[in-house]
Amino acid sequence: MNALLVDDSRLARTELRHLLQAFPEVTVVGEARHAEEAREKLRELQPDLLFLDIHMPGETGFELLASLDVAPRVIFTTAYDEYALRAFEVNALDYLLKPIQENRLAAALAKARLKQTTAAAVAAETGVAGPPPPEEPAPTLLTEHDQVFVKDGERCWFVRLSDIRLFEINGSYTQIYFEQNRPLIPRTLQHLEQRLDPRVFFRANRQQIINLKWVEGIEPWFSNSLKIRLRGGPEVEVSRQQSVRFREMLSL
């Protein structure tokens, strides 16, 4: 994958270039200091991947993307956490907070590789080179290492998914359990299930999705179902159908 780095900070570009040396599948083909220079580099180099800062002199990273007819896959790199929700609304692959951690960079590049492999498979099957015809983008799968922006009324959080132990339906909203917080978000469990890594997040029943890494205890329950106790609470009853799936998924 050819990558273009766009950041007004030379130090940030140098640090990111250094981190990318650990990923031989990525070749940094250019750098840009602001949106105008980035547009020129994008036309000239046509990279597969764009590492994009948000706050830059002149136009922001979002304004740069809005001005493009066709954009490569985007990974935002920024020191600000309040734009995470907007970043995913423009179908960014990932949102990395500075200073960038190598494990977060690795997770973002894994998503980029998956997208590239899928596009290549479609091209091979259809015999059409280049990107497939425009279609509704598939939701980006979030790993436990990702951080998400959560807003409930006047309160906001930027929380790592690994810290969330439970998603639970509450009326027409979904309630999130992390630390002592219980914010509500306007998302359905069906939507969340499509976005969350199924190796970590398990749909226990129609009302709840649990983080398997927070399971503290399991006991048999009625009609061959299971009851799961999460660290920090609460207890979750797994439906009979999902109990069968749970046993199959986690058994040797």
Quick rundown:
The protein is of the alpha/beta class and 252 residues long.
What do you see in this structure?
- The protein is built from seven helices and 15 strands.
- By secondary structure, it is an alpha/beta fold.
- It has two domains: 2-126, Response regulator (Rossmann fold, 3-Layer(aba) Sandwich); 147-250, LytTr DNA-binding domain (OB fold (Dihydrolipoamide Acetyltransferase, E2P)), CATH 2.40.50.1020.
- Strand 13 (215-220) and strand 14 (226-230) form a beta hairpin.
Q: Please tell me the total number of domains.
A: 2
What is the typical, i.e. mean, pLDDT? Answer: 88
Taking all Cα atoms into account, the compactness measure Rg is 21 Å
The total of beta strands comes to: 15
User: Which runs of at least 5 residues are low in confidence (pLDDT < 50)?
Assistant: 132-136
Number of discrete helical segments? 7
Largest sheet: 5 strands, parallel
- Write down the oligomeric state: single chain
**Annotated CATH topology of the largest domain:** Rossmann fold
Q: Which architecture of the largest domain does the CATH hierarchy give at level 2? A: 3-Layer(aba) Sandwich
List the helices and strands and how they pair.
Layout: E1 2-6, H1 10-20, E2 27-32, H2 35-45, E3 49-52, H3 61-66, E4 73-78, H4 84-89, E5 94-97, H5 102-126, E6 147-152, E7 155-160, E8 166-170, E9 173-177, E10 184-185, H6 189-195, E11 201-203, E12 208-211, E13 215-220, E14 226-230, E15 235-238, H7 240-250
Parallel strand pairs: 1-2, 1-3, 3-4, 4-5
Antiparallel strand pairs: 6-7, 8-9, 8-12, 9-10, 11-12, 13-14, 14-15
